[in-house]
Specification:
Blueprint: H1 20-29, E1 34-38, E2 44-49, H2 50-57, H3 61-68, H4 74-85, H5 89-92, H6 106-116, E3 120-124, E4 130-135, H7 136-144
Antiparallel strand pairs: 1-2, 3-4
Amino acid sequence: MNVANFMSRQVVTVTPKTPLHEVWKIIFKKHIHGLPVVDERKKLLGIIAEEDLLAELFPDYKDLEEALGKLDDDEQIKEKLSKLKKLTAEKIMSRRVVFTRPDTEVMRALSRMIVRKVRQLPVVDDDDRLVGMISKSDIFRKLFNR
């Protein structure tokens, strides 16, 4: 059994120029854990995980502590929001993507997800074009619904 038999072929993607607010809407309204970033030929350029987005929006603890002391400064808050609005997918995506191929044995893909601690993998062809996504739940659903 290979990945092609388990993967989802209908994949929601964004381009590098997709604005942050659109990325946010897609990830949280559609409950997507990993959003592939592709070019016009569907070549996989990167991926945005929920965690990447949250890290961009919410500073680490030390930065948060400093920011809390400045919350009464409306100009600083407006400036921070203005900077966030200018972010695009290419600024927040991870360029090192763990992926798999359609002909990969499905248990090998599952092993890769477990070892790399990811919920899903983009599936790319030999030209690095996105052809699907496979998640742990896709695999378990098919294996146990037989």
